[in-house]
Specification:
2-enoyl-CoA Hydratase, Chain A, domain 1, 2 domains, Pdz3 Domain, globular, 12 helices, alpha+beta, 448 residues
Length: 448
């Protein structure tokens, strides 16, 4: 199988298939109708006198609304922006970074992202040894591939603007765009008679959430980039391929670096592949009630003799941390990389009829051993993985058993020291066994 050449940081920062900018809003709050006529400053708000909530007086809100619309020098004001601002302000006052409102366009883009649908040219960017911006590889079936772009092509200019000193993020921002639109790239290629321009029509690109690779010596590497609607099916297909193509399987490396999370049920499904029975994650809601999510199917990697390493970094969040925590505590997996993000809450999506949605934090999730790793809300005592920083700030997330940095120099040189360490751990009998013993002693001391 073709070896993946993409390093961890590249996976998330260089895909030229990112979403377009957010914008727009339709007033979809239940019980309200806003009738706006172009060029007229008077706005009729229906049912505003009937709005009450637990004896909260909305009179001042409507007074301000009427005064702004009737007296501001910029009238007529954009009513949709006013409503969007009011909703954003209400959500901001909650003080929770994960409770959020998405208008129709935003909600569509978020859903597409979770399902692996992107608009762009479908290429991976990086730097060569000289520090020049290059095409690492065009994606299979992408507009970049069909246009003739090749791995190693130097990107000299984007829409006439040279790329000297440009970062990958700024290049992505310029190249991304809506399907059907064109982008012009000035390229340099070894063996050609100077720079040449290619015009590429952007398209919608479908990216799988699961990929795997045979690393040899009975080691399977699985890259899990998100927990989306198709992840469970893609996972099952990959696992079946591993079982059939790697008969002498010795160990599995599960890579959830820069995986922002996704569906909770998918996290339970993935964890169940490695855990034979019992609790995968616990959920506690504000009223004090709780729910345990248990193993939901018979997995093919539950054999305790199969060595397991989970790769995490600061971009591993939410569902990624649920899986890492479950496999660490229930399966004896070793965690390699950098401390994970530290998102220990669960959001429920409330969908509106017009396509907008409100994501509300409804609960906190705990590891099987009851650790809450949320960096925004938890205290030191909430998790054995937490640390106190600067005598007051809590560092949450899943703490790796092996902390391995990933530098800019590693990215430029296409090295992956975290993956290399994972392979070393699985191959080394002494290193793996001593690490497991150290973990057991650490857990015993933490419980004393």
């Amino acid at each position: 199988m073709k070896i993946f050449k993409i390093t961890q940081s590249l996976i998330t920062t260089i895909l030229l298939v990112l979403l377009g900018a957010f914008g727009g809003y339709y007033f979809g709050v239940r019980g309200y109708d806003v009738n706006v006529k172009n060029g007229i400053s008077k706005v009729e708000v229906i049912n505003k006198n009937d709005v009450t909530s637990n004896n909260v007086n909305f009179e001042r809100f409507w007074e301000v609304w009427d005064l702004i619309n009737s007296k501001h020098i910029k009238k007529p004001l954009d009513q949709e922006k006013l409503v969007k601002g009011a909703i954003d302000g209400m959500i901001a006052s909650v003080g929770d970074p994960y409770t959020s409102y998405f208008d129709v366009q935003e909600n569509t883009e978020v859903t597409n992202s979770l399902n692996g649908l992107y608009e762009g040219i479908g290429a991976q960017l990086g730097f060569n040894e000289a520090g020049q911006l290059i095409i690492v590889a065009p994606l299979d079936g992408s507009p970049a591939l069909f246009s003739g772009i090749k791995s190693g092509d130097r990107i000299l200019a984007i829409e006439g603007t040279d790329t000297i000193g440009a970062s990958i993020e700024s290049a992505v921002d310029k190249i991304r765009g809506k399907a059907g639109t064109q982008i012009a790239l000035l390229l340099g290629r070894d063996g050609t008679d100077g720079p040449f321009e290619i015009k590429i029509t952007r398209d919608t690109i479908k990216l799988p959430s699961v990929k795997w690779e045979d690393k040899g010596d009975g080691i399977a590497y699985i890259r899990l980039s998100r927990f989306g609607a198709e992840t469970n099916n893609e996972w099952t297909k990959s696992v079946n391929e591993i079982v059939s193509q790697v008969p002498n399987l010795k160990g599995v490396i599960l890579d959830v670096r820069d995986n922002p999370g996704g569906f909770l049920d998918s996290a339970v499904f993935i964890s169940s592949e490695f855990v034979s029975d019992g609790v995968v994650v616990k959920e506690e809601v504000s009223d004090g009630t709780s729910q345990n999510f248990k193993v939901d199917h018979k997995g093919q990697f539950v054999d305790s003799s199969l060595r397991l390493v989970v790769l995490v970094n600061q971009g591993s969040a939410s569902a990624s941390e649920i899986v890492a925590g479950a496999l660490k505590e229930r399966r004896g997996a070793l965690i390699v990389g950098q401390r994970s993000f530290g998102k220990g809450t669960v959001q429920k999506s409330e969908e509106f009829a017009d396509g907008a949605s409100l994501h509300v934090t409804i609960a906190k999730w705990l590891t099987p051993d009851g650790n809450w790793i949320d960096k925004h809300n938890s205290e030191f005592k909430d998790s054995i993985y937490n640390e106190v920083k600067d005598e007051k700030n809590i560092v949450g997330g899943i703490k790796p058993d092996f902390i391995v940095d990933f530098t800019d120099e590693d990215i430029k040189a296409e090295r992956d020291p975290q993956l290399d360490k994972s392979i070393e751990i699985i191959k080394s009998d002494d290193l793996f066994k001593s690490s497991i013993i150290s973990k057991i002693l650490e857990q015993i001391n933490a419980s004393l």
